[in-house]
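Notes from hallway chat w/ T.B., transcribed later so I don't forget. T.B. wanted the structure written out for a chain they're using in a teaching module, and asked if we could keep both sequence and structure tokens in one place. Agreed to drop them here.
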Amino acid sequence: MEKKQGAYELLHSIWRTYTAVQKLQPGQQPWYYKADDILWLMVQSLKIRARTALVQATLKNA
């Protein structure tokens, strides 16, 4: 349950940032808040979390 909560909080914070930036005028948006970049960062962080969980499970079962 704790892992699901952490993943949910991560996604929720990314979504809040994304929606806040979308409300800005196009000229005001910082270059690092493009939608593609945010989605890429989201995928990378989820991959890291998945690898971490896999390593922890492997070490626990060893």
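Follow-up for T.B.: DSSP finds two helices and no strands in the chain. Might be a good example for the class.
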